[in-house]
């Protein structure tokens, strides 16, 4: 049962927990290979930090942690590298409001080999399943999504890897059609695609009137149609669907699954859906995709230097 805690208190406790985790990992150093290691976490705080990475018939437990970027801002990056891989998964069990995770300590050589297989296995996947299993999503609420030019630019920088991969994939897969972003926020994601791929028709909507006002003003020179609307009731048919809001800190788990099922139905035959986000994707995409008759083309993508990976689902509706 979740306690009623204010967002501010949660954020402070979460920050403290992240710093404790980093300190603990540094102090523990290299645990001998084969030892079972346990970590105890509060459901209310850290379920979105843990993931399972699947590749070549192995499943490893992994954990994200807070990092400082070049400008000294602390954030929780969407990209993962081998340092986020803890070891082969052993167990996860719930007791009260705490989950005990355990894994088998690997050697650093085994860790790099597994990371390489994640990069090369075409069906390699990073799944933040514990947030669903233990109901640990933390939606931010409407007031969180305020935007100004500075924060829009920061968010666009943080989404650059998603934009590059969407653009590269579209160059190979499609040459024209309607691209729809049903939770377009500042509109920057669509605008960056529109700059590079001018043959598509761009449509963005968002539930927040302020966000749409901002996007319209910011991109008034660009051929993008923006409108206010709840993605859950959208009837916009499209050839390309950009789903970058079915994520922790944006939605509840149940709403994310409902939104996914509703939106994916709006794709024309042969259409492509991209699913990703700055925070973990809440929907079990591969399971739902096969249930709904979609082909999964990709689960993850890697950075151009092959040092990091991130969730990046690409699905195709049968023609
Ligand atoms: C796209 S997501 C986050 C994307 C990006 N990483 C960021 O940090 O802004 C946030 C947006 O989703 C919008 N949103 C949330 N629920 C929605 C819904 N049911 N329908 C349409 N837009 C929604 C919010 O208003 C907000 O603008």
UniProtKB/TrEMBL annotation:
<dbReference type="GO" id="GO:0032259">
    <property type="term" value="P:methylation"/>
</dbReference>
<keyword id="KW-0808">Transferase</keyword>
<dbReference type="InterPro" id="IPR041698">
    <property type="entry name" value="Methyltransf_25"/>
</dbReference>
<feature type="domain" description="Methyltransferase">
    <location>
        <begin position="179"/>
        <end position="271"/>
    </location>
</feature>
<protein>
    <submittedName>
        <fullName>Trans-aconitate methyltransferase</fullName>
    </submittedName>
</protein>
<keyword id="KW-0489">Methyltransferase</keyword>
<dbReference type="GO" id="GO:0008168">
    <property type="term" value="F:methyltransferase activity"/>
</dbReference>
<dbReference type="Pfam" id="PF13649">
    <property type="entry name" value="Methyltransf_25"/>
</dbReference>
<keyword id="KW-0949">S-adenosyl-L-methionine</keyword>
<dbReference type="InterPro" id="IPR029063">
    <property type="entry name" value="SAM-dependent_MTases_sf"/>
</dbReference>
């Amino acid at each position: 049962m979740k306690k009623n805690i204010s967002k501010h208190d949660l954020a402070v406790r979460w920050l403290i927990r992240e710093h404790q985790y980093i300190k603990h990992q540094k102090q523990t150093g290299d645990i001998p290979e084969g030892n079972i290691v346990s970590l105890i976490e509060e459901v209310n705080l850290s379920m979105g930090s843990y993931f399972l990475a699947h590749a070549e018939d192995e499943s490893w437990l992994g954990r994200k942690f807070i990092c400082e970027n070049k400008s000294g801002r602390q954030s929780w990056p969407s990209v993962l590298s081998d340092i986020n891989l803890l070891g082969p998964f052993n167990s996860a069990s719930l007791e009260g409001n705490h989950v005990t995770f355990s894994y088998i300590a690997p050697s650093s050589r085994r860790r790099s080999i597994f990371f390489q297989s994640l990069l090369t296995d075409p069906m390699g996947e990073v799944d933040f399943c514990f947030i669903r299993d233990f109901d640990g999503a933390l939606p931010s609420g409407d007031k969180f999504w305020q935007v100004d030019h500075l924060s829009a630019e920061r968010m666009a920088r943080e989404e650059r890897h998603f934009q590059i991969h969407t653009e590269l994939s579209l160059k190979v897969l499609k040459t024209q059609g309607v691209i729809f972003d049903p939770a377009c926020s500042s509109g920057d994601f669509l605008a960056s695609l529109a700059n590079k791929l001018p043959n598509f028709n761009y449509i963005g909507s968002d539930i927040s009137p302020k966000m749409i006002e901002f996007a319209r003003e910011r991109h008034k020179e660009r051929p993008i149609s923006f409108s206010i609307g709840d993605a859950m009731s959208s009837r916009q048919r499209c050839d390309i669907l950009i789903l970058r809001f079915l994520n922790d800190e944006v939605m509840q788990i149940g709403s994310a699954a409902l939104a996914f099922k509703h939106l994916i139905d709006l794709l024309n035959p042969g259409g492509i859906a991209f699913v990703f986000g700055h925070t973990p994707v809440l929907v079990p995409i591969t399971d739902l995709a096969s249930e709904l008759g979609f082909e999964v083309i990709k689960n993850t993508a890697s950075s151009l230097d092959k040092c990091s990976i991130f969730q990046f689902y690409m699905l195709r509706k049968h023609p």
